[in-house]
TrEMBL record:
Residue ranges annotated for the NADPH-dependent FMN reductase-like domain, each copy included: 1-143
Taxonomy of the source species: Bacteria, Bacillati, Bacillota, Bacilli, Bacillales
Highest taxon in the source lineage: Bacteria
Record-given protein name: FMN reductase
Entry keywords, A to Z: Flavoprotein, FMN, Oxidoreductase
Organism, scientific name: Heyndrickxia camelliae
Amino acid sequence: MKITVISGSIVGSKTKTAMSKVVQMLENKYSEHEVTLLDLADYKVEFSDGRNFFEYEGDTKYVAETIMGADAIIIGTPVFQASIPGTLKNIFDLLPVNAFRDKVVSMLVTAGTPKHYLMVEQQLKPILAYMKAQIVQTYVFIEEKDFYRKEITNDDVLFRMERLVEDTVVLTETYRSIREAKEAKYDF
């Protein structure tokens, strides 16, 4: 199974810290799976101009093809101006409308205040549903107070992150089994 972990911002450290922890959890518990961290701060991604994702070159092509090749995606995003950052929105714009069909997508959000928790429900989940994702319904919301010196210090947050990782893997395996059983019914 290929799991792509996206740190969806080019600024700040909290989302990257959280997504690095997610990668560590995946590698510790599910070492048999291929895990790729896409920290958008490490790539020069072009703005979407309407081309097919495979027509881009360089970092843009690598990021888009890595996402398209994944079986599961864990998206980490900060909340900027009560919304997702433009860098993450650009990634969605680069991909086709059915980019997440047969993929399980889960979410982790970092924010300075609990007042922005509905951003996931009102913005991110509808985008993922439109792009045909199988969405892990629960997500992890991490506040400013849960970090200290680029470390997550809240044990409850760490427990919820472990559960998100587990739910993502189990749901991906479950959907794969269902698809394989359905395909086995056809003899061509």
